[in-house]
Design brief:
alpha/beta; 10 strands; 19% strand; globular; 247 residues; Spore Coat Polysaccharide Biosynthesis Protein SpsA, Chain A; seven-stranded mixed β-sheet
C-alpha cells in the first residue's frame, strides 16, 4: 500500500518491488496532476482518489481496502531491496502466527548518495503488520503505528531503500514544512518550548549526529544532514514559541 501525490518519478519502482510480496497493490492518491495514476494502473494497482486529510487517515483508508489481513506500507519514494523481498517471502512461507508485525531496516539515499552513518543509520521502522491488530495513529507530523508492549515484533533482513530527496532545495523545504506541522500540533496540545530546547537541543543534535554517530564518514552529505537536522530542531521549537506568544 502506498499514498501518492504527483509521484511519477518513483511510484513505478515502489510498486514493482511490492508486487514481489503481494498480489494486492493499493494506491491512495490525493489529487495527482501528473501521470501517477496511469503508471499505477499499468502496474496493476487499485487506485483510489481521496482528498488529503493527513498521513494517517490516508494510510488507514488504504489499509481498509486491502484484501488480506497483513499489510506492507511503503511511501512512493521507497522500495524493497531484493534481499528484503526474499526475507519477507521466506518468513511468510514459514508462517507468521508468532508475530503481529515486522520491523524493516532502512537505508536512505540523499541526493544520489547512500547514507551509512549519522542520525539516519541504522534505521528501523515497522511497516509490515497485521491490520486487524495495528493501525496508523493520528500524528500530524511523523505518523506511526499504534504499537503496544504486548505486540510481537519480528525482524527481517535486507533494506527498504528510501530516496528521500534529490536536491538540497527539497531538503530545506521539508525542514520548513515539518517544523511548522510540529509547532502547530504542539501549540494545539498546549505545549511550550523553553530556552534549553530551543538553543541547546539543536547544538546537541548536531554534535551527536556528526561526531558521536560518525556522520563525518559520509563526507559533505553527512555534514549537510546533521546541520539541517539541527536546524529543524531549532525551527520547530522557535515556531512553537512564536505560536504560543501569538495566542
Amino acid at each position: 500500500m502506498s499514498i501518492t501525490h504527483n509521484e511519477v518519478k518513483r511510484i513505478g519502482a515502489c510498486l514493482d518491488s511490492l508486487r514481489q510480496v503481494s498480489d494486492d497493490l493499493i494506491v491512495v492518491d490525493s489529487g495527482s496532476t501528473d501521470a501517477t495514476e496511469a503508471i499505477c494502473l499499468a502496474k496493476g494497482a487499485r487506485f483510489f482518489r481521496r482528498a488529503w486529510d493527513g498521513y494517517s487517515p490516508q494510510k488507514n483508508f488504504g489499509n481498509a481496502q486491502a484484501r488480506h489481513p497483513w499489510v506492507i506500507s511503503l511511501d512512493a519514494d521507497e522500495e524493497l531491496s531484493p534481499e528484503l523481498i526474499a526475507s519477507i517471502q521466506r518468513q511468510f512461507a514459514a508462517g507468521v502466527a508468532d508475530y503481529d508485525a515486522f520491523s524493516l531496516p532502512f537505508i536512505t539515499n540523499f541526493c544520489g548518495q547512500w547514507i551509512r552513518h549519522g542520525g539516519w543509520n541504522p534505521e528501523q521502522h515497522v511497516r509490515l503488520f497485521d491490520q486487524r491488530r495495528i493501525q496508523w495513529n493520528l500524528d500530524a507530523v511523523h505518523e506511526g503505528l499504534t504499537l503496544r508492549p504486548e505486540h510481537r515484533i519480528g525482524r527481517l533482513t535486507g533494506h527498504v531503500r528510501h530516496y528521500t530527496v534529490d536536491t538540497l532545495a527539497q531538503f530545506y523545504a521539508k525542514t520548513e514544512r515539518y517544523s511548522q506541522l510540529f509547532a502547530q500540533r504542539n501549540h494545539q496540545a498546549g505545549k511550550r518550548a523553553g530556552w534549553v530546547k530551543t538553543y541547546l537541543s539543536p547544538a546537541f543534535r548536531l554534535l551527536a549526529e556528526f561526531v558521536f554517530k560518525r556522520g563525518f564518514l559520509d563526507g559533505r552529505a553527512g555534514w549537510i544532514i546533521a546541520r539541517e537536522n539541527a536546524r529543524y530542531t531549532y525551527l520547530k521549537y522557535k515556531k512553537l514559541t512564536q505560536l504560543n506568544r501569538a495566542g
